[in-house]
Amino acid sequence: MNASAQAGAPLPEQLYGVIGWPLSQSLSPLVHNTGFRALGIPAVYLRWEIPPEGLGTFMDAVRLLNIRGCSVTIPHKQAILPFLDVVSEAATLAGAANTLYWKEDALCGDNTDVAGFLAPLTAVPLERMDALLLGAGGAAHAVAAALRLRGCRQVRVCTPGNKRHLELAERFGFTSVAWDERYAAPAGLVINATPLGMHGKHEGETPYDFALAPRVAGGIAYDIVYNPAETRFLREARGAGRRCIDGVAMFFGQADAQFRIWTGQALPEAAREALGTALGAR
């Protein structure tokens, strides 16, 4: 009998994980494995680095190995949709899925980023606010869906290459603007949905210079990057008098929604504490 069994810990019976490319900085394994251990659930959550050309083969493995659930991150959130049997309303609206799960014999996709993004904005009157969305990837599509669902008054969207955001703008009825014109109009809510500022090679970068932007009373800066918790984007926004929302609340909110889909239970406080400790150490 091994030490784990002697200690009374359940042996893993269910396999979960996160897929993306690359994944070296992902804290999802820490959060979900902490949740499984705290609740005594016999499951393990792994990290699977899957290049874009390997996605189809991996999805075959999900079915063959009966992998019970996956988190999906860059660059697969949109590309994964054709491999699913059922796609939720939120994922359909966003055009991207960040969560895979089984419902009987159907492999399903959902998008918990939508609820995760909106969680810190519950008391914000988005219907009376103009927003600027920076980025157009899978996470940006979830943000766009959330803004649409909450009835944000006007949303402008742009990307550095001046092309990738065009489909998103058309899909959601948003206003497309050139990257060099992103400071032209005031925005009460500025959202970074690009990888700029993320721990790694892009840390220290920002997609927005608040010194060049019109000042807005009660303005908010929201960075969906969660690692590090305080990015250059947020530091400069705070210096410009903006209320700041970091990506930690969104990350934990979407992770909690995933955990509930998979287990029927909320992520325990131990998972939130483990996330805070890990981010504080970086």
Task: Walk me through what this model shows.
With 282 residues, the chain is of the alpha/beta class. The protein has two domains: 3-111 and 250-280, Rossmann fold (3-Layer(aba) Sandwich); 115-245, NAD(P)-binding Rossmann-like Domain (Rossmann fold). The protein has ten helices and twelve strands. The longest helix is centred in the C-terminal third of the chain and has 17 residues, at 247-263. The two termini are 37 Å apart.
Number of distinct helices: 10
- Spell out the CATH superfamily of the largest domain: Leucine Dehydrogenase, chain A, domain 1
Biggest sheet layout: 6 strands, mixed
Spatial gap, N to C terminus: 37 Å
Unreliable sequence segments: 1-6
List the helices and strands and how they pair.
Blueprint: H1 3-6, E1 14-20, H2 28-39, E2 43-49, H3 55-64, E3 69-72, E4 86-87, H4 89-94, E5 99-103, E6 106-110, H5 113-118, E7 130-134, H6 138-149, E8 154-158, H7 165-172, E9 175-176, E10 189-192, E11 220-223, H8 232-239, E12 243-245, H9 247-263, H10 269-280
Parallel strand pairs: 1-2, 1-3, 4-6, 7-8, 7-10, 8-9, 10-11, 11-12
Antiparallel strand pairs: 3-5, 5-6
Helix pairs in contact: 2-10
Question: Summarize this, please?
Answer:
The protein is of the alpha/beta class. The chain is built from 10 helices and 12 strands.
Describe this protein with a few key phrases.
six-stranded mixed β-sheet, globular, six-stranded parallel β-sheet, 282 residues, 12 strands, alpha/beta, 34% helix, single chain, 2 domains, Rossmann fold
